[in-house]
Amino acid sequence: MDLKQKATLGGLLIALGTTYGDIGTSPLYVLNAITSGKVINETLVVGSLSLIIWTLTLQTTIKYVILTLQADNRGEGGIFSLFALVRRRKKWLVFPAIIGGAALLADGMLTPAFSVTSAIEGLKHVPDLHDIS
Q1: What are the backbone angles phi and psi of residue 73, rounded to the nearest 5°?
Q2: pLDDT computed for residue 50 by the predictor
Q3: Do the Cβ atoms of 15 and 100 come closer than 8 Å?
Q4: What is the pLDDT of residues 66-83, one digit of tens each?
Q5: Spatial contact of 86 and 75, defined as CB atoms under 8 Å apart
Q6: According to the model, what pLDDT value does residue 116 have?
Q7: pTM over 0.70
Q8: Is residue 74 situated within a structural domain?
Q9: Which of 16, 17, 45, 122 has its CA 20 to 30 A from that of 9?
């Protein structure tokens, strides 16, 4: 059997959502990814801040305000409310809702690990703790 490894748009979106799922509330997680191994100059700083601000604005506005808050299930909201709503109307929309719920749970499991890793990486910059690896 010939298995080709190709990236699909859905796979890329899931990976992006899992890795940077908290970008609406925690843009500093991506700062290390933006600046690692690069010479920090004015263009990089302005471009990075622009990407973070636009991502905060567009993702939060479009995803949460326009889409998620419109999914009102008798006062309940969020991805699980969206799942309950689409289950009643269009059966084929259940699969994207399940994927969204799985991404939400994965985000809840990965965020603490990312936070601890970021905190430990930050300890390297404290002068008295430079031997920590």
Answers
A1: -115, 80
A2: 87
A3: no
A4: 766 666 777 776 667 777
A5: no
A6: 80
A7: no
A8: yes
A9: 45
Residue with tokens 């567009």: 58
> What span, in angstroms and rounded, lies between the C-alpha atoms of 3 and 8?
14
131 DSSP 8-state letter: T
Indicate whether 56 belongs to any domain.
yes
52: number of Cβ within 10 Å: 16
Count of domains observed in the chain: 1
Nearest to 21 by CA among 87, 100, 75, 74: 100
User: What is the sign, positive or negative, of the torsion defined by CA atoms of 122, 125, 126, 132?
Assistant: positive
pLDDT digits (tens, 9 = 90+) for 34-43: 777 788 889 9
CA geometry: angle 65, 69, 75, nearest 5 deg: 155
